[in-house]
Design brief:
It is a single chain. The protein is built from four helices and two strands, in the order H-E-H-E-H-H. The chain has one domain. The protein is 60% helix and 6% strand. The radius of gyration is 15 Å and the shape is elongated. Strand 1, helix 2 and strand 2 form a beta-alpha-beta unit. The protein has 97 residues and is mainly α. A two-stranded parallel sheet has the order 1-2.
């Protein structure tokens, strides 16, 4: 969640002081999940930011890719994902892995 708050703060600050004709863009380079117990809050925060402005974008990183494959039913990826932060991510959503 820290990264989303930081991005929002920087976007607001840059927007207030940036007088260039090019608008400020914030691009988060993935890996917003599998980083501890705040994964669900991080995803929600990023979703709120992307819904509230067209100047914030999140790219899917390798952890998001692994999560998507695991949640679509790839059991091999699911087992691997659990050991690389997936367990904490699921718990952050209230799911018992």
């Amino acid at each position: 969640m820290y990264r989303c708050r930081l991005a929002r703060s920087r976007l607001s600050r840059r927007s207030a002081t940036d007088r260039s004709p090019m608008p400020t863009q914030v691009l988060l380079l993935g890996d917003i999940v599998d980083r501890g117990p705040e994964s669900a809050r991080m995803v929600r925060g990023c979703m709120n930011l992307t819904a509230s402005t067209d100047r914030f974008m999140v790219l899917k990183g390798n952890h998001e890719e692994m999560m998507v494959k695991a949640l679509k039913g790839d059991l091999t990826v699911y087992r691997h994902w659990l050991t690389f932060g997936g367990r904490e991510t699921l718990i952050s959503w209230g799911v018992d892995p």
